[in-house]
Amino acid sequence: MHEQDVIERNFKEYMEIAEYSMSKGKYNAAVILYYKALVEICDGELLKRVNKIGTNHTERFILLEKYAPELYAVASRLFRFYRDSYNKEITETIAKLVKKEVEHAQRIRTIG
Q: Which domains does the chain have, with CATH numbers?
């Protein structure tokens, strides 16, 4: 399977399960999954723009800042909520904010 196809399938899977988590009030899980969906958006754009994907968050942020600054802005803004989801309780308000930002990232990527 082509790498871009895998990215798109992963994106859809993460979004679907994030929506399910939201519907069940599992906001920590939802934020983790929405952020993973955002990573797929970012990786897909990097693959299209520079034929390279970051191997970790640091490398991904460096590449995004240089080649996709509009997505870098979203990813860097949301990263703290992703990190917080590991050891803090995420509220519905934060989960909705993360969802909205990921949907925004989806609209601004080159090809939707």
A: 3-108 (1.20.120.330)
